Amino acid sequence: MPDAILEFEGFSAAWRGRKVVGDVHWTVPRRSLCALVGPSGVGKSTLLRAAARLNDGLPGWRTEGQLRVAGVPCADFAPAELRRRVGYLSQKPVVFPRSILDNAVFGLRYTGRAAGARLVDAGERALKSARLWDEVKDRLGESALGLSVGQQQRLCLARALAVEPQALLLDEPTASLDAVSQSAVEETLRELKTRLAIILVTHSVGQARRLADSIAYLHPDEGTGRLVETGPAAQVLDRPADLRLCGFLAAAGEPSDNGRNPMERRIK
Amino acid sequence: MLQWLRPAEIRAEKAAKSLLLAAGALGLAAAAAVVFFIGVESWPAWREQGAGLILGGEWSVGEGRFGALPMLAGSAVVTAVAFAAALPIGLSAAILTAEFLPARSRPLARFLLEALAGVPSVVYGLMGIAVLVPWLQRGLGLLTGRTLLTGGLVLGVMILPTLAAVAEDALRAVAREKREAGWALGLNRIETLLHCVLPEARAGIAAAGLLSLGRALGETIAVMLLVGSLDRLPNPWYDWLVPGQTLTSKLGREAVEAAVGSPQYHALAALALILLVVVAGLTLLGQRLSRVEGAAR
Amino acid sequence: MRRLRESAALAVLLAFAAPAFLLPPLLLGWITLRGAAAVDWDFLSRASADFGAEGGVYYQILGTGVLIAGAALAAGPLAWALAILRRVYLSRANIRRLDLALYVLNGVPSIVFGLFGYLCFVHALGLGVSWPTGSLILGLMILPTAAVAAAEGLDAVPRERIEAAEALGLLPWQVIRSVHGPAGLPALATGLALGLARAAGETAPIFFTAAVFSGVDFPRSWRDPVVALPTHIFTLAQEAADPAALANAWGAALVLVALIGSFSALSWLLRARARGAIHA
Questions:
Q1: How far is CA B224 from CA A163, B120, B221, B243, B270, in A?
Q2: Between chains, do C169 and A107 touch, taking CB under 8 Å as contact?
Q3: Whole-angstrom Cα distance, residue B45 to residue B34?
Q4: Domain assignment present for C15
Q5: How far apart are CA B197 and CA B172, in angstroms?
Q6: Mean of all residue pLDDT scores within chain B
Q7: Count of beta carbons in the 10 Å neighbourhood of residue B292
Q8: What DSSP line would sit under C24-50, residue for residue?
């Protein structure tokens, strides 16, 4: 089994003629968490959605280059197959108008992977992984719409985990959450990255520092997002090789390790 | 390693897709079948008589001559009367509801306007027969109260709800800014209406008119009961207090009588084809107009 | 001067608009008045006799019920399938074709449906004058209404919800079962109720294809015709000279209008619930 789970090779995506992300060369190893950072609107979400092939039906959407999952090119899969290996979570939690348990086991039930008692057990396991079980175990039958945003997002996480993917694509999962929910999700991610490959899009450099094993930086280049630097987290954050990443980190108000801001560190 | 797509799933997906596509084909086929059947069955009549079918003034089964002119004239008269009656009333009601009534009363007004829409045509026919026919007969000293005018008047009441409702929708769809522009210029309500609102709502009101026209032309039962069922051209052309015949009433009366495959049968199919083409055309046009207006927004 | 013109114009508007608001209560009241004289429990529960001059409309009510139940069965699943097909599988071009077919179908006058039914179902397919023929024709008539309503219900489902299901690896058919289907059903029900309200009152499509005036009570087989309210009223109306027949016609008319009214009310209720279900 090849070590890398997600490999982008010369991957570009264009929409209505405009190249949204260009020439991405990137390898995300299994059982690690890679944070994808960059300024707003650069294309981080788009890259993630492209990886899950969620934009396939959109008119005017074109991709080039290769994306391989566990060594197999994406294009060889049916989209449904790909998404069972690679889970995706959107920024805003999208919950189905059903009970909490039904939401958690949604994927398992409708793909026919489990039924009856096995379904309920799987749901319990998923909810525990997402650290939501204790809060909902007494009201599994209630509508999921009654949960808070933070709980809904964790429910979506549980739902994605229930289908047992090999990798997870998370698009700013804690962006709309309060501090308590955010730390619960981060706890979960810390545990998950020992089992799965995770790409975490985040606008919070602090979150990247807390969770990431490696970091990839997407920089806007005349409307096209390009991956200009990747590497181990500590290295990229403290001694960024690319000047543009320095600028980004400085603007993000990155606290330095010895009182000097990232620009100073780089120059030194 | 889990199996990613099970064969059972793939089978189910394919089966579902095939079933749905079959349903789609069935839907398309049904629409095509109606037009096709009527067209094919009417072909012998067209071949036999050509334009004589439309222009001929006499419909005689015995002599094998089938002229649709009295029916066309009858349909035209009845529809014209209905439209002339319904348009001023319906449009005024629409304008009143959309522009002058307070917002609170609007639901009630709409309810009143549309309340009669659900009354079936046979009940309209009954009302016409029980009330209008004797009244006209006695009041105007006619031989019979079943005339083209009677049919037209009742038809007017029938299309009134649709006309008023669709027109009111069109008026309400006009953006608030257009009215405010008028008020800002110092125009009063009537002037704003005439110069700012009505021009904007033109397409929607035209749509309302076309849809009602289509409905009037296609109406059968009420007309059958009230129009007199006599194949004759109004003579003079403006004398409508006489019995007559419309395309729909003719079809209603003779459809069962004609032996399948006889010349009469083919001629009736030809009448149905004319009716179908005109009404479907009007309805499509009306629908397109009301959508264009919506799209332009 | 302008003020005077405005008031005059308003008065004219009011005068012209008045009939539109006054006729409905007038006519409905008239129907109720004349009909109530004839309707009582006996009327509703007895069979008609003496060619309608006596007795009630029990079997006519049942006949109408059978026809519209059949129409719902014929149109419902097909309308649902068409709506799903349109939303999930069809290309833009094909959607336009399907919409065109539905619009054409919607514009066909009811007598032409009757004629088509007579030619195609009664003769060509050999179904004869029977209640299935009537149900098929009525079903065809209400198909566009039901399909359009269902399609609107499906369109109301937020895009993110569909994507969330797809992101879990569900195949299109599974997304239909889990997301689209449940969303489309309430809207379909609304459309069906609306269509059935119309179908219940239709005379032309059934009066030479499914309904007879007398000689039948409850259909016992696939080939039996029925007696129905609209055709009953139609035939009685033609004997308007006979006051007994006329009175019964009014009674039947009241029953029919009440039936249609309740279906309309049902569709209203369902529409309100459907809207609630989407935004739940």
A1: 65, 14, 5, 11, 19
A2: yes
A3: 18
A4: no
A5: 9
A6: 87
A7: 12
A8: HHHHHHHHHHHHHHH-SHHHHHS-EEG
Q: Give yes or no for a contact between C47 and C55, defined as CB atoms under 8 angstroms apart.
A: yes
Instruction: Say if B54 falls within a structural domain.
Output: no
Q: Which phi and psi angles does A96 have, rounded to 5°?
A: -80, 150
Highest mean pLDDT among B6-10, C3-7, C190-194: C190-194
C77-119 tens-digit pLDDT = 999 999 999 998 888 888 988 888 888 888 899 999 998 998 8
Q: Are B247 and B72 in contact (CB under 8 A)?
A: yes
- Residue C277: band (very low, low, confident or very high) from pLDDT cuts 50, 70, 90: low
Query: How many whole angstroms separate alpha carbon C5 and alpha carbon B286?
Result: 34
C240 found inside a domain? yes
Using CA atoms, how far apart are residues A36 and A230, in angstroms rounded to an integer?
Answer: 9
Q: Alpha-carbon distance C65 to C228, whole Å?
A: 8
Confidence band, pLDDT 50/70/90 cuts, at residue B46: confident
Say which of C27, C173, C200 has its CB closest to residue B13.
C173
- The whole-chain average pLDDT of chain C stands at 88
Task: Give the residue numbers spanning the domain of C212.
Answer: 39-44+52-279
- Give the Cα separation of C132 and C110 in Å (integer): 17
C217 is a domain residue: yes
pTM summary value: 0.86
Determine the 3-state secondary structure of A11 from DSSP.
Answer: strand
Distance from CA of C1 to the nearest CA of A (A): 59
CATH number, residue B202: 1.10.3720.10
Kindly state whether residue C4 falls inside one of the protein's structural domains. Answer: no
The number of folded domains in chain C is 1
In whole angstroms, what is the distance from residue B87 CA to residue A56 CA? 50
Residue B172 has pLDDT above 60, yes or no: yes
Q: Comparing C-alpha atoms, which of A185, A240, A254, A252 is closest to residue A33? A: A185
Which of C14 and C124 is assigned the larger pLDDT? C14
Residues 6+ apart with CB under 8 A from B177: none
Averaged pLDDT for residues C18-24: 93
Strand ranges inside chain C, DSSP E: 48-49, 54-55
Residue B46 located in a structural domain: no
* Angstroms from A82 CA to nearest CA on chain B: 9
Q: pLDDT averaged over chain A?
A: 85
Q: Which tokens in the block code for residue B206?
A: 């035209």
Please list every residue in chain A whose beta carbon sits closer than 8 Å to the beta carbon of residue B4: 77, 81, 84-85
Q: Does C112 touch chain B (CB under 8 A)?
A: yes
Tell me the nearest-neighbour CA distance from A97 into chain C, angstroms: 6
Residues of chain A with pLDDT under 70: 1-4, 254-268
Q: Is the Cβ pair A112, B4 closer than 8 Å? A: no
ω into A165 cis (within 30 of 0): no
Boundaries of domain holding B133: 63-296
**B194 in any annotated domain:** yes
Which residue, chain included where needed, has tokens 């987290």?
A233
Residue B172: closest CA among B119, B76, B95, B90: B95
DSSP string, A70-82: TTEEGGGS-HHHH
**pLDDT at residue C101, rounded to an integer:** 87
Report if residue B17 sits inside a domain. no
Picking from B288, A198, B4, B259, the residue whose alpha carbon sits closest to that of residue C100 is B288
pLDDT, tens digit (0-9, with 9 covering 90-100), for A24-40: 888 888 888 999 988 88
Q: Do C168 and A94 touch (CB under 8 A)?
A: no
Number of Cβ atoms within 10 Å of the Cβ of B33: 14
Q: B interface mutation test: which of A30, A113, A163 has the most B CBs within 10 A?
A: A113
Q: Which residues of A touch B6 (CB under 8 A)?
A: 112
Number of structural domains found in chain B: 1
Distance, CA of C16 to CA of C25 (rounded, Å) = 17
> Which residue is listed with tokens 């397919």?
C125
Subunits with 3+ C-beta pairs closer than 8 A to C:
A, B
